[in-house]
Amino acid sequence: MTATAMLDLKQRLARLTDEERRAAAAYLLRLRHESSPGRRETSRLMKEMDAGKKTRLSELSKRRHG
Fold it and tell me: pLDDT tens digit string along 44-58?
């Protein structure tokens, strides 16, 4: 993608409503998860979780606000 095309895309995204931005973000996230690197990353994370490497939601909250 050219720099001009990227700038145009960013400007168009900036003009979207919040709802439209959420939809665009969800679409981009889905594309990432469907890609080969995205699937590998998900697989790696799941293996870590299966091995016991997990963080409780309460711990994340403490880290964020603590």
Answer: 999 999 999 888 888
